[in-house]
What does this fold into?
Amino acid sequence: MTPANEHDNDMTLTNRQGHPISDNQNIRTVGSRGPSTLENYHFIEKISHFDRERIPERVVHARGAGAHGYFEAYGTVGDEPVSKYTRAKLFQEKGKRTPVFVRFSSVVHGGHSPETFRDPRGFAVKFYTEDGNWDLVGNNLKVFFIRDPLKFPDMVHAFRPDPVTNLGNPERFFDFVSNSPEATHMVTFLYSPWGIPANYRQMQGSGVNTYKWVNKEGQAVLVKYHWEPLKQGIKNLTQKEAEAIQARNTSHATQDLYEAIQRGDYPEWELCVQILSDDEHPELDFDPLDPTKLWDHEKFPFLKVGKMVLNKNPENYFAEVEQSAFGTGVLVDGLDFSDDKLLQGRTFSYSDTQRYRVGTNYLQLPINAPKTHVATNQRDGQMAFIVDRAPGQSPHVNYEPSSIGGLKEAAPSGKDHEPAYNAKLVRQKLERTNDFGQAGDTYRKFEDWERDELISNLVADLSICRPEIRDRMISHFTQADADYGRRVSEGVAALLANSPHLGSVSAQEGAEIAKNSGHGTD
Ligand code: HEM
It folds into this structure.
């Protein structure tokens, strides 16, 4: 029991030991001008806590904003009962609400970088379901740069500033993507206005990777998840519009989200899934497990399963937004992984980085802890502050199996999904890579102003790359669509003719141009 303290419920300042602080202005010194002494407990506690106020930034997606809300299920998927495809409890009942926490982010640069940069945006949702947490860790764009997780650290290095000068330069980006033809589709989205969403409210979200849904019989289908903004709509920016905002405000997206929720204008998204049977689909010219590809929405319609409303701002940015930890391994019964290789690589990376970034017991923090029954035999570790013991569990028994008061395994909620494999262990690409086909489709589907922006943004950045990089990119664009390649090629030639120095810019000039194009340093 907590002992009563005369200061309980008043505004008296204390230290973390509960000692009331009567002087928070002066350290103890020998005389008013004298040296200080080492037993200044209050000062040393205060300053050493301050010295440790920062945890490492996320290695990617460092800049972000978050909000709380709820997900409301429709009970159906399109016209069918959702139970036909998944037994996940959160989807089953029409009107059922599940609390959520969402963190939006930009990817490449640091925790205080401008929110106007051309960059994918993260869209990570934590559902606190009755069966434990489900994290849907997505982006605003529906495809990704690479399909093999082995390439991810190189990709991020290439997108970051030069390790010697710490200056950003698009040549690093284009050097990598020109040698990774599978990135052509993502680059086409990124350099169009879709690469700078106006804010976090007016953008889509997508799980990008392929997952599975599993029903009671253990039957699975492949699914892709999509968040479609409801009343607030979708809005993207031109490069000029983004620059004008950046000149005034480097936090416009965080501010927009916070203020909208404060004034009661709650953003809403509908969750849709696309469903494919769980097989290789030889009739398609791409592999459904390839995250650089869209599943054509005319053939595989977006089926609505529920909506999400964000209606509460965090009370403390650090405790909730900074320490939140999402991961693709965090699924509930009825949801499963597919064999998408990128997804499998991601699934190791998230909890690994979080044990380092936040600490071994990061799942004990209120923002990450499930809001349901948690009873494990995990004990100890840095900063352990609870023992997640079931009420009937003996405090002595921290192992399983046990017949003297230990935890018991849960009863299965349906048949296991048991995919069978019979193949050689290899290092090989997917067979149907088709790196350029969908990039061309996307180029042709853009509106005229989006295509014009795409070309002018590419021309600006490619003009300061060395010729072999430029030529490789133009070759990829041409293979996607002849008009696409021709326009970039002519644009670069015209720009270089007018500014011949651009083709051989110095690192400093390159960085200057890069800064104006959104590839600046942190
Ligand atoms: C954050 C790894 C691909 C979306 C992160 C973090 C890591 C990581 C280490 C930092 C997590 C933390 O500190 O809490 C990877 C790897 C990938 C990959 C290894 C590929 C092999 C993707 C893809 C998407 C994505 C394809 C989108 C579908 C996100 C988001 C966050 C994030 C939204 C921020 C989550 C938050 O707000 O805390 N990723 N990632 N990542 N990643 Fe990935």
Q: What stands out?
A: Residues 64-364 form a domain with the Catalase HpII,  Chain A, domain 1 fold (CATH 2.40.180.10).
